[in-house]
Amino acid sequence: MQDRGGGTMAGPMYRLRHRRLMDIAPAGASDSGHSSGHSNGMPIMVSILVVVIVCTLCYCIYCWRWRKRNAVRRAQIESLRPLSNSDLPLMDLTSIYEATNSFSKENKLGEGGFGPVYRGVLGGGAEIAVKRLSARSRQGAAEFRNEVELIAKLQHRNLVRLLGCCVERDEKMLIYEYLPNRSLDAFLFDTRKSGQLDWKTRQSIILGIARGMLYLHEDSCLKVIHRDLKASNVLLDNRMSPKISDFGMAKIFEEESSEVSTGHVVGTYGYMAPEYAMEGVFSVKSDVFSFGVLVLEILSGQRNGSMYLQEHQHTLIQDAWKLWNEERAAEFMDASLAGSYAREEAWRCFHVGLLCVQESPDLRPTMSSAVLKLISDQMKMPAPAAPPLFARVVKRVSGSEFSLAIKSDTTKTHSVNEVSISMVEPR
């Protein structure tokens, strides 16, 4: 077709159609890009939403568990408040903070498994020792109540004296008399201080511990088994007189019972009687065994622990029994004594210590018999039988530490205070 100018109409029509196509094309491309962007954005939004929901749920669970834990703790604290009926003074938290200078580092005496101990001075000038149970302490409300009620009822010159307790907010604290010389192990196993323990002092400490244990077993209104007698739980006053402390693991015994079996073994290896460590059976004779180990440690100035086992390939009590039978007891005595001790008195203590660590509980003396043997030079004592046969533990892959294990006919084993037992080589 041609226009009046002789030209065709294809050119204008083509240009019009081309323009329309150009107008449509960007719109289509834009819609496609928007659709693609929308499809890519959806997974991101869903992922963010899922993360927010999961985080919210985790936070809610955390808050619920935190409130539940606090509710249990508050219930435990509230259950301890009736302790005021035991005639034990309840001290307020503010006065303890003032006495210890807000538990300053300068007043910290040490730290055990249950928490730190601080020195404090009350307004009147009286010195106190504050045992502050940490939130992560192994000693819970039951053990705390046990220790408070026990010590409140026990009064003896060879037991540490409890002055009061504090149960306020989330705090659980015991307030003791302050003993300036701290614990026996600080002297006994320190070569710089062991010289301060002459023979008369050591003999007095042995006899004082024996009398304190006799009171717990037979002479108090309760029959108490300590279950954790060791050098660090014997405190020394300003005259170096011993006082037994830390009754968190102690148990009151029924008069008609001779022994108790428990599935939960507590205490310290090296001081544990074999029947208790291996089978969970404890009695007054378990404490007697611990006392015997302590006597031998006081005589030798050596700790019956993994370091001794690693160095000598056998335990301190085995070494003591061997030297006694070979009539070489003098070689066992602490070198810091430099031979300055009464031979008959020392040998009597040595003999009693070996009688207390005999493997069979039936062969061990009671504490009343042990005290008589210690103070009388007229009593005829039987020859001590062998102590329990300990075993040497092979070096572990991760290190060279040795652990104590006890060889027994039973196949039961208990690991206490995170001490591992593995690959035993019997001696």
Kindly describe this structure:
The protein is an alpha+beta fold and 427 residues long. It has two domains: 84-177, 2-Layer Sandwich (Phosphorylase Kinase, domain 1), CATH 3.30.200; 185-425, Transferase(Phosphotransferase), domain 1. It is built from eleven helices and 14 strands. The protein has helices spanning 10-80, 93-99, 141-153, 185-188, 199-219, 274-279, 284-300, 306-312, 316-325, 343-356, 367-375, and strands at residues 108-112, 115-121, 127-132, 162-168, 171-177, 224-225, 234-236, 242-244, 251-252, 260-261, 281-282, 390-393, 404-406, 424-425. Helix 7 (284-300) runs antiparallel to helix 10 (343-356). The radius of gyration is 36 Å and the shape is elongated. Residues 76-85 and 391-427 have low confidence and may be disordered.
Q: What is the oligomer described by this structure?
A: single chain
Q: How many β-strand runs?
A: 14
Question: Counting H and I runs of at least 4 residues, what is the number of helices?
Answer: 11
Using the 3D structure, state the CATH architecture of the largest domain: Orthogonal Bundle
Q: Strand percentage, roughly?
A: 5-15%
**Major beta sheet, strand line-up:** 1-2-3-5-4
Largest sheet: 5 strands, antiparallel
What would you give as the CATH superfamily of the largest domain? Transferase(Phosphotransferase) domain 1
Determine the N-to-C terminus distance.
121 Å
CATH class of the largest domain: Mainly Alpha
Structural class: alpha+beta
Helix amount, in percent? 40-55%
Structural domain tally: 2
Question: Low-confidence segments, ≥5 residues, pLDDT <50?
Answer: 76-85, 391-427
Using the CA coordinates, give the radius of gyration. Answer: 36 Å
- N-to-C SSE string, H for helix and E for strand: HHEEEHEEHHEEEEEHEHHHHHEEE
* CATH topology grouping of the largest domain: Transferase(Phosphotransferase), domain 1
Average predicted confidence as pLDDT: 79
Morphology call: elongated
